[in-house]
Amino acid sequence: MQSAEVTALPVIASWQQIHQPMLLRHQLELWVYQLNTAIPQLSGNKWLKLKYHIVQAQQLQKAGFLTFGGAFSNHLAAVAAMCHHYGLKSLAYVRADQLDKHNPTLAFCLQHGMQIQLLNREQYRLRNDADFLQQLQQQHQHFLIVPEGGSSAAGASGVAELELALTPNGTASHVICAAASGGTLAGIINSTGCKVLGIAVVKDPSLPARINQLLHSSAKQHWSLNTDFCGAGYARFDDSTIQFCRDMAQQQLYLEPIYTGKALAGVFTLIEQGYFSPGSRLSFFHTGGLQGLAGLHYRKLITTADFALLSGSAAG
Ligand SMILES: Cc1ncc(COP(=O)(O)O)c(C=O)c1O
Question: Does residue 208 have its Cβ closer than 6 Å to ligand 1?
Answer without folding.
Answer: no
